[in-house]
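Could someone model thiamine diphosphate with this protein?
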Amino acid sequence: MSTQIDTTITIGKMEALALYRQMLMIRRCEEQLAKSYQAGMIPGACHTYVGEEAVATGICAHLTHRDAVFSTHRGHGHALAKGVTPRQLIAELYGRETGCSRGRGGSMHLFSPEVGMMGTSGIVGPCILQATGAGYSFKLLNTDQVGVAFFGDGAVNNGAFHEGINLATIWELPVIFVCENNMYATEIAFSYATRNTEVAERAASYKIPSVAVDGNDVLAVHAAAAEAVARARAGGGASFIECKTYRTRPHAEGMRDAGYRTADEIEAWKARDPLALLQSRLVGEGIANAGDFEPIDAEIKALVEDAAEFAKNSPFPDPTSVTNHIYSASQ
Amino acid sequence: MSTQIDTTITIGKMEALALYRQMLMIRRCEEQLAKSYQAGMIPGACHTYVGEEAVATGICAHLTHRDAVFSTHRGHGHALAKGVTPRQLIAELYGRETGCSRGRGGSMHLFSPEVGMMGTSGIVGPCILQATGAGYSFKLLNTDQVGVAFFGDGAVNNGAFHEGINLATIWELPVIFVCENNMYATEIAFSYATRNTEVAERAASYKIPSVAVDGNDVLAVHAAAAEAVARARAGGGASFIECKTYRTRPHAEGMRDAGYRTADEIEAWKARDPLALLQSRLVGEGIANAGDFEPIDAEIKALVEDAAEFAKNSPFPDPTSVTNHIYSASQ
Amino acid sequence: MRELTYIAAGREGLAEEMARDATIFVVGEGIGVRGGNFNTTQGLYELYGPLRLRDTPIVERGFVGMCCGAAMTGTRPIVDFMFVDFILDSIGEIFNQIAKIQYMSSGRLKMPIVLRGAIGIGGSAATHHSGSYFPMFVNIPGLRVVVPSNPYDVKGLLKTAIRSDDPVLFLEHKNLYNNKGQIPDEEYLIPFGAAAIAREGTQASVVAVGSMVRKTLEAADALAKQGISIEVIDPRTLAPLDIGTISESVHKTGRLLIVDETFAPCGIGAEIAAQVMVAGFDDLDAPIMRLNGLHTPTPYSPALEAAIVPTTQSITDAIQALLAE
Amino acid sequence: MRELTYIAAGREGLAEEMARDATIFVVGEGIGVRGGNFNTTQGLYELYGPLRLRDTPIVERGFVGMCCGAAMTGTRPIVDFMFVDFILDSIGEIFNQIAKIQYMSSGRLKMPIVLRGAIGIGGSAATHHSGSYFPMFVNIPGLRVVVPSNPYDVKGLLKTAIRSDDPVLFLEHKNLYNNKGQIPDEEYLIPFGAAAIAREGTQASVVAVGSMVRKTLEAADALAKQGISIEVIDPRTLAPLDIGTISESVHKTGRLLIVDETFAPCGIGAEIAAQVMVAGFDDLDAPIMRLNGLHTPTPYSPALEAAIVPTTQSITDAIQALLAE
Ligand SMILES: Cc1ncc(C[n+]2csc(CCOP(=O)(O)OP(=O)(O)O)c2C)c(N)n1
Ligand SMILES: Cc1ncc(C[n+]2csc(CCOP(=O)(O)OP(=O)(O)O)c2C)c(N)n1
Ligand SMILES: [Mg+2]
Ligand SMILES: [Mg+2]
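Reply:
Sure, complex below.
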């Protein structure tokens, strides 16, 4: 297992700004959803991705719509980075027919196969196995597609982690396992849930190529993903990437955020905000200047405002359609 | 993780001969059961332990009836080493009321709580979790008892391994996990089922004290178990012991034993027969002489013959009792 | 008498039992310091500490299998799943181990374990947080299945469940959590297998399960205004099932409807119908009817979610239809 | 026409489909070189190799979840559990994922997966190798459940299952494996939801499931000698369930018995009884009866095992009792 990731900036300005734009889109959508939640526009749960934007962004930058992503209850960021639009995401959380899941899913069940968003799951664990299965399909069909699983530290001790990673490893499937280690599962500290908190080290015990990166540094995530995705497409099999990150909002909107972590800890991580980190890095190294970001900020602001408006004006699903698609047409 | 086990003989002659006697009892019972199977006396499955006797013997030598053992489909040896009598074992496989499970269980469901044999399971995996639960009870009740799980290499890739070992480790439960790595799960080679065949190494990734020993050397197993059991009784938490061993008979009686392993491999392991190894070691180091073994051989021969006779003459269960004990009396 | 919510009444029953018996412990995610996602264990960690209120990693199979071993070795585990949907990763441990070990050991081992969780559809919880699943637990021998419909019952039945040496599925509908009810000051337990007549009536019998009891009582009130007299029966436990009380009611009314939020096929309504038909074939003036939630995964959108569960109105209509038969 | 065993007929259906569609693959323990514990895949590894006949570690949850992802991404997995008892560790993947994903994706994803395994009591396999479990799969929306009773059906239904875009539980009773039957030389498929009249009769209808069909036909033969005419119906698939064929038969005979080896509570017999009562209440001259295996874990000893399953004699007696009602 190597934790050495070369983070000299190897990508061009346009690509770097695209990463910034993608992270900002996620951030602003989440902020909008938090507001919408408080306004009572979201009937169910809402798990935001604020603080973790660099992970989905850095990984998905290497994926096309033909690649298959499987995610978790905290999947808004993955969906957006994979190509679900803010309109489709916000409308889904509003429970509208125009949502990516036609209002059937909400925050925890985001489906958009058109762009390779194969679904988020309200159950912890299955995404690891399903991404392995996508890898199995792609290997059998002999394509260069990859399957990607995003999951939290909470899934690491679950049997799905153990069984899925081992299968993808022994069969050399084109799969990328991305663990978003944000140190907590709801209010349970990862350091309580296991005696070995080095997830990449645990993955390495299956003899899968495994690396740990700063999950708030989009360039580090991007570089690690470049290696893993290239390996998978070239038939080199599965890879594991642990992204050490942090959620700066409560586990879910409306939940308390005290009693299990300190304000200092939260502040320390806020100081490492992935958007600010990238911005200062790009400016610092003279790759971009403040002026480069303003149009992006304006564009995203408009995009998200439009999305919220679109969602609010979208129709609810027709109750008479409630039993559609339980079974395929083939029977 | 340490694989260094000091195997200078630290135990006395009587103790050493007791280990020999226990291994021989298992061996002769299994040989009897194999014969009985061919004679059609065993209506169901029969998984023998021939070649692996040193594991159950070396571990259980440190246990009392108050300690709790949980085992697998290949559990005859564990049951005998824990105190189930040859009569109770053979009668059970014959499906008789006098069997340890009253004829309800057969080869894969051996229950004798009186001696701390808490059950074998026809399902791979659960014994790991149940031993963890016994450890939880003993910790909560504040006793010095230990829970022990015996399982094969086939269970290592299963989620139960991952979840159970982690729980026992983080909660420092008095549990000993004993993996009988005999290199195959039915006809599936362990080297196919995982890229990391060093089970003790994988266990160590949970930060549980873990050791790999020669499972055909009863003294090595005995020494490793001494350390682990002492640690557990002293409140030091769980331990993991990988015993590298081999079954010299087919997966189950009546099954083919070709097409997945070579005759040479089987012969090589037969040459390392745990009984012969111990005998030559004891004689070689002048601790015992041939004369010491003869009375044991004679006693065990008689014991097992009597057991088979007893089983044959035992009554079948009364069909009218078939629905007893589905629920406790308390309701 | 004090007024307590459904959750508080259950918590009081749990607290009383934990005070009475030091071998009882609870496992689950967030049931320690946090006091439970649904406040099921609030205040107990402070009293009994981490060994008896054990927060767990997200390993449902692992801690259920662990609790099986614990129940075999002298302690009395309670698994708090939060949402019962999470139980599905542990079905192997429940069906093949927990349900069978008393039998396989000829009663030499007991299995005092309670498996509790929130069931039911509501609040746009969506398809991974809305399940009930009790028919499969009724199908398998060796398990007890409890579905309390009110605060009084949840306390009395939980205490019985905790004292039972059999494994008990204790399934609490999340929509009932904030309902209030009168709780006696003195201790009480409610036996398994004893249905409650929630309302007496003469023209039709309606068996309502869990969250459907209240809605059915509302329907009965509405019908009473039209001079129609409905008997409402709450089975309280589905295994054991008090078919005697149900059959007696049908003997009186000649008509039976079973109202159940969960799926109809091979559900509890089918079982009750099949048993009552045999027990009281000549009593029946009409076919036994079932009103169930729609046979579909649970959608998120409120507009859709509302369309799949029986309502006071649809229950009223179903009773009218039964009377018209 | 050729005579084939149940196992050989199923294998022939599988082989034909694998030859027709290169996206089909099989996973399981020992289904590769070994050809399957029950010879379900014998000879296929030599033809299609390890990618399409994939031996697995003992990770039922893992490979079921994996096959869910595979079915979502363009291939058609078949999981061969050997004994279906091993499916229980994967129930979470089946109920929460496989059964729901077509619905949650509004049909944009299909779920072409077959979950097959040996069910049933026999040969002192004991309690971890004797389960059937189909009622719970019938209860859950999104699944198809198939229980073939003879070689002709197993081939035709397996081909339909493999071509289905819905997840299918394909449950084969191990006691049927060596039964022989005539198999046409030309290709054929059998649609889901079409029951078979295994024997025509006039005095009572008997629905028999899986391994009970043959025993029930024997009972019907015995009764025919006494001049009693019994109609025997094999539902073949339990989801979808062909209630129409059953109701028509009851319309003719006025009496119905359901014979099922598996547990009665919330079982398929209860569901059939509840539906037929509504569909044909006025047709019924007697209560619908059920004959099930005893509600107990499966004991090992032959003396005990034989006591818990319906026999030709107990079926005959049950029919006599029904006629006497
Ligand atoms: C099998 C299962 N058990 C419990 C839950 C309840 N639950 C929802 S999210 C969560 C914590 C997940 O933590 P983690 O995987 O680290 O993701 P994070 O929320 O930190 O992003 C839990 C326990 C669940 N969804 N699934
Ligand atoms: C969950 C489960 N899946 C499959 C089986 C079928 N099975 C019985 S024994 C066995 C192999 C077990 O191998 P291992 O654990 O190495 O034990 P060994 O037989 O080598 O002692 C298998 C696959 C089972 N019993 N349980
Ligand atoms: Mg986390
Ligand atoms: Mg092995």
